[in-house]
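Bench log, entry 3. Co-assembly request; chain sequences pasted below exactly as received.
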Amino acid sequence: MRIVIAEDAVLLREGLARLLATAGHEVVAAVGDGRALVEAVTAHRPDLTIVDVRMPPSHTDEGLQAARALRAVNPSERILVLSQIVSGRAAADLFATDAGGIGYLLKDRVGDVDEFLRTLDTIADGGEVIDPLVVRQLLRRRTGLEALTPRETEVLALMAEGRTNTAIADALVITEAAVAKHINRIFAKLHLSADDTTHKRVQAVLTYLRR
Amino acid sequence: MGSVRMPAPTSDSPAHATVTTPLMALRRHPLRLLATSWPWRSLAYVAATPAVAATWALTCWPLLVLSGVPLGRVERWRLRWVDRRPVANPHRHDPSPGLPAWIRSRAGERATWTELLHGVLLIPLSFLSFAVVCVVLLVPALLLAGSAASFVLLALGVDPAAVTAVPDLPTSTADGGALAHLGPAALGLLVLALGLYLVTLVAEGQRYLARLLVGEPAADIAQRLDDLTRSRARLTTAFDDERRRIERDLHDGAQQQLTALVMTLGTLRYQYDRGSDVTPLIDQARADAQRAIDELRDIVHGIYPAALREHDLGDALDDLVARAEAAGLDVTAHIDLPVDLPSDVEVGLYFAANELFTNVAKHAQAETVHLRAHRTPDRRVLVTVQDDGRGGADLVGTGLVGVVDRIETLGGHVHISSPAGGPTRITLEVPCVSS
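Structure output for the full assembly:
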């Protein structure tokens, strides 16, 4: 697919471009700040944009602001935000709309290239991906989860990451039927409305976690 | 800054305030004054004045204008008898070693001259003190002695009036009864009591004068407190800036390098799984790792110099000199320091010296730098950095404020001499005992 990269550290920008090229993607533009990113996306209309949170000039959250600006213009813009630090609040902000096609990952996840490439596909297909560490942070801060059993908490975390029932079953080494049963109980306990599509489910869980 | 103390509360109006001076004692308990120690301490203070003044006038005159300095010391010590608030030394801590330098610096100080004035005023005052003490002690003593003598003579059956040895006894009339002989004793006690009130007042006057002339003026204390408050605020900001700088160094440097390494390794694995040649990626990964190590080494050195952790200040300064030489400066160094300096002194002096070298490189346009570091026999560590640059160094816009703050935190001083056109000579001075 055609990808735009926004990353101010030259070393990482080049590494990322090399990696994506290796995997057969086309990097149509690689820029170093938020303003250039908005221009590049407008010009190239890529299938996916990868953006670093902290960029010049203020080195705070230019990447997030650019991502929000892009999504405001085109709510179905596919964006993966890469961050050096875990910030549950920044992530929850990104997932506030139910348009899908968005992801928030820690930078070093890129090292697991196969997983990373799958993540890109998920987002391009309109799915949602959120870093497990961010989910864990949200879970830690959220009270009211005492009603859940440890196993149900695990399932909730995996749901928040955007895993399908099959993936959850694989991760926990249980049957898919068992996963479905856990999920039903979680939804009942937390008073969430069940939804079949995975990304809507992520949304529901994230909404609950940041409430 | 060992001589700076917080000013004690000076107001004597709050009822709960501690009594710190004779006047306060008198105001607080006018009737019970004699039951406190204040009149007696006042008496000792006033009575000692003639002795102090005479000793000073006879022994210290060869010191000429500096003769007030030893007197000031004695007077500050003696002031504690009648003033419970701390008395600060008004002299600056000796800036430079050696007797001639000491004389020059003392002669230029206001305190030296006020102490001399105090000595000159003390001479007439000592006559007054002597007179007061005589009246307060001798008159009651004579009256009491006369009374006692009358009783002794009566007991022996002799008419006291017939005894020429005591012709002046006021009540020695022939027809006076034994009780009449108590009159002088009562009068003596009354004189003593009133005299002690007088002594308390005289002591208060002398105390006020001494505090004014040999103590540190209140304005100076306020000024130094103000300086301290500002310097503390600057230090706090400096700590925050430092943390932010370290965070940025780590984020922009080592963290990025390591992430790049992870990325390269990920690509390597991906290629390897697909049977491609991964040799270039292995080289790339090694280069990434080496960059991260270099980056971390620099950052770590900025946080706490390895030379200080593993060696002493002398070695760390050697390391600094080597770095300055590597940066193109011509450096000569004389370093003669003990190995057992307290670590706060070592760290403070190291970073201050580091900042001075940075300033030389950045601002001075100098070619040669001389570093001298040694400990004086009176246990002060001096580090001097002198360059042949263009001079004109001041506290604004350079790291010098930080240097001054760092050194003053250790109770030391920074001496700056940097005329326009150079040379610049900056001495860091820190008092220290071996750890």
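Chain A touches chain B at residues 9, 11-12, 15-16, 18-19, 22-23, 54, 59, 84, 107-108, 110-114, 116 (CB under 8 Å). The mean pLDDT of chain A is 86.
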